[in-house]
Each structure stands twice: as structure tokens, then as C-alpha cells.
Amino acid sequence: MDAKEEKRNFLVDWLNDLSLGRKLMLMQVICVLLPLLITDSAIWLLILYAEKKAALQEMNNVADSVIYTLNDTIDNAADLVQNIYSNRYINEFMKVEFDSHLDYYEKYVRFTKDSFYPVSVNNNRYNTVIYGDNPGIVNGGCFRRLEEVVGAPWYRELETGGREMIVFVSYSNNGFTKQRKVSMIRRMDYYHKGYEKSVLKMELNYSAISRNIINAKYSETLYVCEGETILFSNDGRGGMHVPFMRMSKESMDKAGVHKSMNVYGSIWDVYVMTPKMDSMAILKDNLPLILFLICVNVIVPFVLMRLINSSFTQRLKELDKVLEDVDGEELKQLPRVRGRDEISVLMASYNRMAERMNELIQTLYINRLKSQEMDIARQKAELLVLRSQINPHFLFNALESIRMHSVIKKEFETADMVQKLALMERQNVELGNDFVKIRDEIGFIEAYLELQKYRFGERLTYEICVEEDCKDYWIPKLTLVTFVENACAHGMENKTAASWVFVRVYKEKGELVMEIEDTGSGMDEEKCRQFVEEMSNVKIEMLKEKHHVGILNVALRLRLAANSRVRFEMSSEIGVGTTVVVSIPLDAVELIRG
């Protein structure tokens, strides 16, 4: 046998040792729960991937939105700059020769009245100044001398960059004002009249641009940078009057989305930072789907598997229970066969087998009836011997009561005691029949208890309750009186307080029930349990040991008379009393005849 075959046989043997319920549970875990766990984990990973993809799409949308906003603002400003650049009136004003400062002022006033330029380009959105090299220009208003800005960084940028128009970002700190500025700068001389050194500078409203970005309320943090300089952001750390901050290379690398835009030769980078993935928030957002998957993939299969398991095991347990009783005289049948599967077929087959076996047993019983008659005769002889064992013991107790009463009381009540003793002896020594009606047994009990009252006096009180339709049933002679005698002799002997003896005979659930109760000394639980076991399994050999001979004698005769269909129960508590219950099916009682 190769290793593969040995391994297979080992697994088969291991599975054979498992109960059916464990096999089904193992199958559920390996074939259902484990694949579902893997599937659900994959679904959860897909949900996280979808969330990341949605977050990436959102970051792209934010970057596109910011780029659109900046382009729109700058393009609007560029259009206005272009209009100014191509305006004929402005270009003509720039080439006028002024005789004096007064002459400039008068012409400037006329220009501002006749032109829309000062109103349209100087407002809360833009601040526009034209720097020219015309020596007649007086600094003020919309026009200034070029010579005062020749050394400015933005002018040097325009001169060295070789472009006609640039966007310049700067931070101004002249001691009076501190502010960030975004300016569009363009060379003038649209008509090429020799004024190419004139420069138009339009300052955009930095605060308005920053507010537009912040007021958009993007959920992601974003930065607009020129190189490492942060121009705009929505992280709350910037401001109009705060110097520009710098963005580290590490922070740039952590950005989820990076897009660039060309702003008239300058490259502005838009960085949108990756938001933190909140697994609990994602779980909460997808809670209905997760609960649905748990219900469909875990709870429903678990409940269904439990039902299937119960369908198998419950019926197999019922079959196992009846198979445990094969030691009885007949095979019990299943009261009900449920279902139409293979297990129900097995249960129905067992019922047919049990029915056939019982028929065979009955046939064998009839064939062997004659041989059993010999055994019955022998048993009757043994019963007579057993009954004769009771008489001396019982008679001794009765005569001892008479003796003690005569010695102590010195009264002639012994005549009455002897009369009751004679009644008892007449009942006891009749050898004609070992069975007696319950009504006659009760008379015997009353005579015995009245006799015992001479011994115990007021310490003994009794009560006998027998249902009327139970009085004509036959039972083995001395059955009840032996239990009563045991209650008096062992229950009241060592107890000085008053005690009761109750005798009850009634029918209940198809059984004849004989109940003897006393409020005597009682016994411990272990001794009570041992007593019941001895009565339930009594044999003739046990009587030879002279141990509880009276009670065991009665128990043996009851088992023989009722074909072992008798049940003994006993409950007792030390100092409280003892109760003995004898139950015989009514159909077994009907077979007992005197």
C-alpha cells in the first residue's frame, strides 16, 4: 500500500470515528463557511478598492476644478490686459508730448473723462498701472514713470524671460504693507510706435482667488505651488499677509494627484493630498450590504445546516433508543416514521423486522408453553416457601407488641389484641392461594395498624384511601401490609414524635398505583437508591442472604406475578419520612387472579 493510499485510509478512519453531527459541522465549516469567508473578504477588498478608486476620482475632480478656477481667473485678467494693450486711446495718450506737469494733468483729466479705462481696470478685482518711459508722465493714477520699477524683480523677469506677457507671484513687505501679490505683466506698444519699453502691470485680487478655493469646501487638502513655493492652499495655514510657505519633497511625493498648468510660461503644480481611509466610516457606509452578506452567507447556511443536522440525528437517536431495548422480551417499534428519505426507509424496515421478530417470539413462546408450566409449578412452590419465611418474622413483631403492652399497662385489652392477631394469622396461614383482593388486603392492614396502636399509642396515626374501582384487583398476598409493617418497624421505632402512615391505591395513566408513605425516621439518598435497585432486580438468591427479606420477598412476588412489568420508586429524607410507590400496568394487573 503506497503512502497516498495510507493517508486516504487514515482520513476515512478518522471520519468514521466522528459523529454524524460533527461530520455535518465539519462539512459546513470547510465547504460553506470557509469559502464564504474568503468570498466576503474578497468583496470587502473590492469595496476598499472601489473607495480608493472613488477617492482618486474625487481628487482628480478637485485638481481639475482648481485648475479650471485658476485658468478662468487668469484668462479673464489676460483678456482685460489684451484689451488695454490694444486700446487706441491709451496708446495715443502714451505718445503725447507734455510741455509741463500742468499740461500732463490737464490732458490726463480730459483722458479720464473721455475713456472708460480708469473705471474698468481699477476696481476690487484688479489694480492696473502702466509704466512708460515718456518723460512728461507724472507719477499718479493709472500711469507712472518706468524708471522707478526698472530694478524690480518682476521687471527683470519680464526682460530676461523673453516673453511678451508673464504672471508674477510675489510677497511685498515695504514696511507699511505686507501682502501676497499675483500680477500679470505685459509689454505695451501695440502699434509699434517706439514705445516698446512701456509695461502694463495688472495686480489680481489674491484674497478673492484664495477665497474661491477655500469656499469650494473641497474635502481633500490641496496645494497650488510654483516650484516649492505654496501659492494657494485650503489647509487654513495661509493668508494674505503671511509670507509664502514652502512644500517639502516628501509632502509632494505623498500627494494622491499631481497636475500641472502652464500660466504664461510659469508652471504651477496642483497637489491634492490623499485623504485618510477611515475603515470604520467605510464599514458604516456599507453596513447594510455587509449585514446582508452575513445574513445570506453565514446565518442562513448555519440555520439550514442545523435543520439538516437535526433531521438526521433526531431520527437516528430514536432508532438507537429502541435498539437499546433489544434485551427485553419483545422488540419495541418506532411509534412514528417521519419523512421519505433513506433514514425513514431504514426506520420503516426496522419496524417490519421488529414486528416479524415479535411474531416469531410469540410462536416460540406457544411452542414452549408446556415446558414453562413446569417452571411455573416450581415458582409457586418457591413462593410458598418465601411466604412461609415472612410468618415467623411478622408474628414475632405482633406478639412482641402484645407482650410489651401487657407488661407496661397490666390491662385486659390483650383480648382485643389477640382477636386482631387471630384475624391476621388466619389470613396469613391460608395456603390455598397466594393472591388476594385489594379490599381484603386493606382489611388486613387496618387490623395490623390497630394492633400497632396498642404499642405506639398516640404516636401512630394512619389514613387509608383506596379508589372504589381498585378494590377488586388481585395482588400477591401481604404485598401492602409488608410495606406498612416496614414503615412501622423501621420508620417509627426510633422516633419519639407522632408519626403518620398513609396508604393510597389509585389508577393513573393506565397504571395501578400503590403508595405507602410514613413520616418516620427516613433514610439517606444513597441507601434509598440502593433499596430501589435491589427491588427492581431482585432474585431468589438475594433472599438467601436474609437482607431486607420481607420487602424483597414482596418485590420478587410482584415481578413474577406481573411478568416483570412493575416499577418501584422510593423517596426519603432523614427525619422527615419515606414514600414507596409501586406501579403496575393495568393490563398486567388484569392477568393476576387468585
Would you kindly provide a written description of the structure presented here, covering whatever features stand out?
The protein has helices at 3-17, 20-85, 88-94, 101-114, 117-121, 153-161, 206-215, 249-254, 279-285, 287-323, 342-367, 369-409, 414-429, 438-456, 479-491, 525-536, 540-543, 549-561, 586-589; strands at 126-132, 143-145, 165-173, 178-187, 199-204, 222-226, 229-233, 255-263, 266-273, 435-437, 460-466, 474-476, 499-508, 511-518, 567-573, 577-585. It is rod-shaped and about 170 Å long. The model has no long low-confidence stretch (mean pLDDT 79). The longest helix has 66 residues, at 20-85. By secondary structure, the protein is an alpha+beta fold. Strands 2-1-5-4-3 form a 5-stranded mixed beta sheet. The chain has a 5-stranded mixed beta sheet with strand order 11-13-14-16-15. It has a 4-stranded antiparallel beta sheet with strand order 7-6-9-8. The protein has 19 helices and 16 strands.
Determine the mean pLDDT: 79
Q: What share of the residues does DSSP label as strand, in percent?
A: 15-25%
Structure class: alpha+beta
The unreliable regions are none
Specify the helix fraction band: 40-55%
Strand order of the biggest β-sheet:
2-1-5-4-3
The coarse silhouette is rod-shaped
How many strands, what sense, and barrel or not for the largest sheet?
Answer: 5 strands, mixed
- End-to-end C-alpha gap: 72 Å
Radius of gyration equals 58 Å
Total strand segments:
16
Counted by DSSP, the helix tally is: 19
What's the arrangement of secondary structure elements?
Blueprint: H1 3-17, H2 20-85, H3 88-94, H4 101-114, H5 117-121, E1 126-132, E2 143-145, H6 153-161, E3 165-173, E4 178-187, E5 199-204, H7 206-215, E6 222-226, E7 229-233, H8 249-254, E8 255-263, E9 266-273, H9 279-285, H10 287-323, H11 342-367, H12 369-409, H13 414-429, E10 435-437, H14 438-456, E11 460-466, E12 474-476, H15 479-491, E13 499-508, E14 511-518, H16 525-536, H17 540-543, H18 549-561, E15 567-573, E16 577-585, H19 586-589
Parallel strand pairs: 1-2, 11-13
Antiparallel strand pairs: 1-5, 3-4, 4-5, 6-7, 6-9, 8-9, 10-12, 13-14, 14-16, 15-16
